[in-house]
């Protein structure tokens, strides 16, 4: 979540209340991040990465730091 916030400047699931935030974490996808001068393919790859990385289901998320690094290298190179 920290990388998402650093890149977008906002929390991906922030609601007006804690209950709204928790509900969003459980059922919503993170809003896409716009990266200036990035291709549509790269924007889509980044959105797919954050959808997986911020998934409520642990099995959808990268399981190790090296898996996170590999996924980000695929997206950003």
Task: Describe the overall structure.
- With 77 residues, the chain is an all-alpha fold.
- The protein contains 4 helices and no strands.
- The protein has helices at 2-8, 18-27, 40-53, 65-76.
Question: In terms of topology, how is this protein built?
Answer:
Blueprint: H1 2-8, H2 18-27, H3 40-53, H4 65-76
Taken as a percent bin, the fraction of beta residues is under 5%
- Average pLDDT metric: 92
DSSP, total strands: 0
Low-confidence stretches: none
Q: Name the overall outline.
A: globular
Q: Give the terminus-to-terminus CA distance.
A: 21 Å
Number of helices: 4
Using only C-alpha atoms, the radius of gyration works out to 13 Å
Query: How are helices and strands ordered from N to C?
Result: HHHH
Quick one: biggest sheet? none
Helix content: 55-70%
Structural class: mainly alpha
Provide a concise account of the structure shown:
The protein is mainly α and 77 residues long.
What labels describe this entry?
77 residues; mainly alpha; 4 helices; 56% helix
